[in-house]
Amino acid sequence: MREREGRRARAHQWRTPEPFDLLKMAALRIFARTVISANKELHRINVTNIHSILPIVQINERWISFFKPPKYDPNTIYTDFEKVENPKEWPYVEWYLKSHFIPKPKNEENLPSGWVPPKEGAKKLPYFVQRSKNFMLPVYLVRKNRGLRRLTIIKKIEGDILRLEAELKPHLEKLAAKEIGCQISEPGGVIKFRGDHVSRVKEWLISKGF
């Protein structure tokens, strides 16, 4: 009976591990992982001579890093080029360079893309809708709540924004045959309509000359 009680007491005498013991356990885990990963890689390699296999430390070493980039080798990495000194050939080189600005399109109608240039008569209206840097109408569609809620947003509005809303909203409600919610941000020059009315708004703005 005394021996059994002594064994039970020894079994319940569990002490909390010290920090040094935890470090030793972590070091053993890291060493075991490296050995196992190296053995897996060695089984994948088919070699005839066992002496040609790299050691474990050399297998796990990173060959490329940000601190030791590969050396410059102009013969293998980069392609050959030729220096052009003739100024007549430079315009052909400019064709391949990226433009620093968007070229202004021609003021032509009935283009294949369907793009329509703005008209001068639009400046006489009490409101004005300025085009974007891509010479497109600033009318956008925003989807929210996983696409269940859609908003049509008109930006870059100048002048009497209330009159623009008063003329455009009845036009959209007549086409949709229902009432449409609207929100106006006069300081930002933005109007929001509930629903997808991008194509109808663009057609109406083009008819006004914007």
Could you characterize what this model shows?
With 210 residues, the chain is an alpha+beta fold. It contains 6 helices and 6 strands; from the N terminus they run ααααββββαββα. The strands form 2 sheets. A 4-stranded antiparallel beta sheet has the order 2-3-6-5, with helices on one face. The chain has a two-stranded antiparallel ribbon with strand order 1-4. The radius of gyration is 37 Å and the shape is flat. The chain starts with a helix and ends with a helix. Residues 45-62 have low confidence and may be disordered.
Biggest sheet descriptor:
4 strands, antiparallel
Q: Low-confidence parts lasting 5 or more residues at pLDDT below 50?
A: 45-62
**What is the strand arrangement across the widest sheet?**
2-3-6-5
**What is the terminal separation in angstroms?**
102 Å
- Write the element-wise H/E pattern from the N-terminal end onward: HHHHEEEEHEEH
Radius of gyration: 37 Å
Tell me, what's the shape? flat
Quaternary structure of the protein: single chain
Can you count the beta strands? 6
Q: Count the helices. How many? A: 6
Please state the structural category.
alpha+beta
Helix content: 25-40%
What is the arithmetic mean of pLDDT? 76
- Residues in β-strands, percent: 5-15%
Features:
210 residues; alpha+beta; four-stranded antiparallel beta sheet; flat
